[in-house]
Amino acid sequence: MSRVVIVGASLAGLRAAESLRTHGFDGEIAVVGKETRHLYDRPPLSKKFLAGEWDADRIRLRKPEEIVALRVDWHHGTTATHLDIENKVLLTDTGDFTYDACIIATGGAVRRLPNQPNHTGIHVLRTINDAEALRDDLAPDKHLVVIGAGFIGLEAAATARAKGCTVTVLEGLPAPLIRGLGESMGRTVARVHHDNGVEIRCNVRVEEILGGPAVSGVRIVNEHGAPEVVDADVVLVGIGVAPATDWLGDSGLTINDGIVCDENLQCAPGVFAAGDVARWPNALFADIEPTMRVEHWTTASEQGAHAATNVIAHLNGEPLTPYSAVPFFWSDQFTSRIQFLGRGTNADDVRVVAGNPDEGKFAAAYFGNDRLIAVLGVSLPKAVMPARKLLQDRATKSQALAHFAEAAT
Ligand SMILES: Cc1cc2nc3c(=O)[nH]c(=O)nc-3n(C[C@H](O)[C@H](O)[C@H](O)COP(=O)(O)OP(=O)(O)OC[C@H]3O[C@@H](n4cnc5c(N)ncnc54)[C@H](O)[C@@H]3O)c2cc1C
After folding, report:
1. Ligand 1 close to Cβ of residue 103 (< 6 A)
2. What pLDDT was estimated at residue 184?
3. ∠ Cα 193 59 276 (to 5°)
């Protein structure tokens, strides 16, 4: 009987196991995961769960009976330490697993500041434990300082502000959300924070988190180049994640900001990667980004399922299928529902194509290489979703502009 080992017991790993079963794989499936809690969904951790509106049960990825029905050998609380590709063995801190095929879905691990101290009140936000600890520290009289104006930091800022906290966000770049949305749209989208009383300070450099034993503030070089201390009761370090590949250093896999895979998500014969940890050539965007790594829920879900179908093909000696897709993510901040399709990286022209940013409802198109490469929507879903087809068809700039002009009439 064949055995598939999946490393990472979260969204991509779960979807891989489900897809193996729905596509008829009847062999053994072992899933190895570092975390000890049941399988849960991460997006609510900065939203309803952090707000205290949803409990741990509400964010389960699957009901207990659905997990049982999968006939998977779950190894929660087990950390993978090495992959021996030649002998097809996964080594972990609790024992070895031989495999016929392996799917790596170890996601991302939060980045920390260099020399980040351990004062109480300093948080990161990736796991349910992180979210519970941060939630317990947020109270109306508290001043939360968020370091990093990315999506997760700004979502947490909005949630904390809605709970009555005073919130300051410190960002080193000239605008919030720059990596995802680019400078002009990042600034536009983050207006909702100013409107709701969150102070976002860009172009500041964080020097040190102060305090001991409890956090007391953050020493920065401010936007005018002067030293300053920003007082804080609670600090969230939200400076992104690094792909969790530390355990693969001597595996022989190519690691370059993620596990480098081919178009089929395969990184070595019979070994596949999926989700936040995977870097692969997405044929739909090859002209603007030769390989990409995507940290979105939908991609993790789709890639987990896709990698599983290629595992089955590999085991049956059949041809593998490439994974190419239009990446999609959403983000909720105050009353804004942000949706983003495609890749904004390398855009050379960004235009508002529907609605009005001043009214907080609009869509913007991103162009690169004379074609449509991404669409952003803020509380305007009807302008965003039809654009998926344009992105799949790699619409030229003029075709896309004609579509948006017609949709506006
Ligand atoms: C707070 C928060 C809010 C988010 N909000 C959104 C959103 O609104 N929209 C959106 O599109 N996306 C959102 N995301 C991103 C989305 O949740 C991720 O893209 C998705 O969880 C990735 O799934 P994954 O399975 O690839 O990785 P992960 O969910 O990171 O899971 C990887 C698992 O592997 C385990 N692991 C790591 N190393 C090892 C090892 N050596 N051995 C064993 N196990 C290991 C980890 O402990 C973890 O459980 C959010 C993420 C966070 C943290």
Report:
1. no
2. 94
3. 75
What kind of architecture, by CATH, is found in domain 335-408? 2-Layer Sandwich (3.30)
pLDDT value for 408? 83
Alpha carbon nearest to ligand 1 atom 16, residue: 297
Helix (H) / strand (E) element for 81: namely strand 80-84
How many CB atoms within 10 Å of residue 344?
23
pLDDT tens digits along 74-98: 999 999 999 999 999 999 999 999 9
Does ligand 1 lie within 6 Å of residue 108's CB atom?
A: yes
What is the Cα 254 distance to its own chain's centre?
A: 21
How far, in Å, is the centroid of ligand 1 from the Cα of 108?
Answer: 6
- Which ligand 1 atom is at minimum distance from the Cα of 92? 42
Give pLDDT, residue 6.
Answer: 98
Q: Give the pLDDT of residue 142.
A: 97
The residue among 206, 244, 211 whose CA lies nearest residue 228 is 206
361-368 and 349-356: which strand pairing? antiparallel
Q: What is the Cα–Cα distance from 37 to 127, expressed in whole angstroms?
A: 10
Q: Which residues of the chain have pLDDT under 70?
A: none
Q: Is the CB of 46 under 6 A from ligand 1?
A: yes
251 CB under 6 A from ligand 1? no
Q: Ligand 1 mean position to 127 CA, how many Å?
A: 8
Domain residue spans in the chain?
3-109+242-316, 112-237, 335-408
CATH topology assigned to domain 112-237: FAD/NAD(P)-binding domain (3.50.50)
d(CA 106, CA 268): 16
Q: Give the Å distance between the CA of 400 and the centre of ligand 1.
A: 33
Q: How far is the CA of 281 from the centre of ligand 1 (A)?
A: 21
Task: Write the CA distances from 115 to 118, 173, 200, 233, 245, integer angstroms.
Answer: 9, 21, 24, 19, 21
Per-residue model confidence (pLDDT) at position 345: 82
Q: How far is the CA of 42 from the centre of ligand 1 (A)?
A: 6
Question: Ligand 1 pocket test: which of 35, 36, 40, 42 has the largest number of ligand atoms within 8 Å of its C-beta?
Answer: 42
